[in-house]
Amino acid sequence: MLLLNKQIPLLGLIITLLLAYTFTWITFSNEKVFWYFYTFTVLFLMSIAFFYAKIDDKIKTIEYLLYGLGFGFLMYVIIAGGYKLLEWTPFLSTTSVKQFFSSFAPTSIWHYLLLLFIIAPGEELFWRGYIQQQLKRWMSPTIAIVLSAALFSFSLIFSGFWLGVLGAFISGIILGLLYEWKKSMPLIILTHIVMLVFLFLLFPLA
């Protein structure tokens, strides 16, 4: 479980989000430096989460392993199902998906290592562990989950990948609900990693 260690003023939360979006905009502006700068961005956001949160986990290892594998696969099925729907729909196209994968998908071993062991954990620590929990100070958990998922998906707007924005929002909702249900940061990190393994290694879409 990730509990708030320090409370940040609303203005501070807004500034943090602006910094996150600024770094993300720079990251997507040049695909040649994407993996370097996005890793730096996630490490920076992760440091904020560590400063303002106390990390804890109360569920048993076997429990978060089983739920992580199950929900990670479920998220992949939803994303893959949406992609297949695009392929089967005459007036929609999968071109944007293929273009995004061509520009930003991992292509080397160190890309995969960064994605699975720094980027995925860092995104969950920041967006679910920090942003979602801070938002709960001003609104109900349900609204905080939806808003944090929307804020998370908004960061992909700078890539121009609108279908990815929708996918990130749906994923954010699932991960946010799972976090509020089980109160386990390792669980949602594992869920995120399992989804990425299916998406980029086992059964890539494009």
Range of strand content: under 5%
Sheet bearing the most strands, described? Answer: 2 strands, antiparallel
Could you estimate the helical fraction of the residues in percent?
over 70%
DSSP helix count?
8
Strand order of the largest sheet: 1-2
Spatial separation of the terminal alpha carbons = 35 Å
Q: What number of structural domains do the residues give?
A: 1
Overall body shape: globular
Total count of strands: 2
The low-confidence parts are: none
**Structural class, please?**
mainly alpha
- Averaged pLDDT, please? 89
Mind telling me the C-alpha Rg? 16 Å
Question: H/E series, N to C?
Answer: EHHEHHHHHH
How would you explain this protein's 3D organization?
By secondary structure, the chain is an all-alpha fold. It has one domain (2-202). It is built from 8 helices and 2 strands; from the N terminus they run E-H-H-E-H-H-H-H-H-H. The chain has a two-stranded antiparallel ribbon. Helix 7 packs antiparallel against helix 8. The radius of gyration is 16 Å and the shape is globular. It starts with a strand and ends with a helix. The model has no long low-confidence stretch (mean pLDDT 89).
State the main characteristics:
76% helix; globular; 206 residues; two-stranded antiparallel ribbon; mainly alpha; 8 helices
Summarize the structure.
Helices cover 76% and strands 3% of the residues.
